[in-house]
């Protein structure tokens, strides 16, 4: 096998990006799509030139691996089905919406290398460097830390009836904190506030304690006005006994100022360019998945790591309601 036959399951916003990248990866043979929505199937077939099936089983017959890009609450069953068919699975974050559900996935994944969770921040060069600095001891003892991620309110509008801001955005920060510090976090308290959506928290602030003793805060919201030039405000700050590090994960580098309308800071790290070429964290992530599957290497982000991030968000949700 010199190229991995791979398909995308769910070709919505994220699946579309996966498909664009997979088309360009030298070691991937992008062979098809499974998508429930008929109009999206036709559009994707025309755009990517591969068959789009209504059923996952039809796609599974054609592939060695799948990338599952279904809504957060639909991750468990298709993942278990693909694993049972002997396929390597890349599952978008969050792994699932409860640790119980993650445990069912893991119980059906006897080969831990068969499953990778799409925690994209682990493929960001800035995060990788920050982790190296912390792990090498250059920061000293971690005294306190802050992770935050806010997006335009437009991100929440499409999804707040089926997920929450802690699950959709906070899962990135839960993973980021664990990945960079190498420590587990305990949730001490969390407060949420509903201001925009019909009934879920749009703002969540959590107070955590790392197992090395540091205090940490995690803040998530989808309340930024859409007119803000950078529609994501995100980052990580760690203050230690020897040094502090600050990582800006917002979109800041490329500003487009139209003659009419609002100025926009455009993403230059996470997503592929319009043509799907060039570097992007998603490309690095998908390339890592493809190569690990092709060369039978360990999962770059095992299910156990996805589950740990889920456990942290679950604890935030529980603390908010207690
Ligand atoms: N890594 C990141 O930074 C990042 C960013 C955005 C979204 N995501 C994740 O990606 C996943 C998908 O999010 P999205 O925004 O693309 O959602 P979306 O709603 O835009 O797309 C989901 C697609 O799945 C299809 N679908 C639903 N049920 C199906 C089924 N049973 N079989 C086949 N197709 C089905 C829908 O028709 C839709 O086209 C979510 O888990 C989300 O959290 C990750």
TrEMBL record:
Q: Which organism is it from?
A: Microvirga puerhi
Q: What is the lineage of its organism?
A: Bacteria, Pseudomonadati, Pseudomonadota, Alphaproteobacteria, Hyphomicrobiales
- For this protein, the parts annotated as crossing the membrane are none
Pfam families this protein is in?
Answer: GFO_IDH_MocA, GFO_IDH_MocA_C3
Protein name, as recorded: Gfo/Idh/MocA family oxidoreductase
- Give the Gfo/Idh/MocA-like oxidoreductase N-terminal domain ranges: 4-109
Q: What range(s) does the GFO/IDH/MocA-like oxidoreductase domain occupy?
A: 128-246
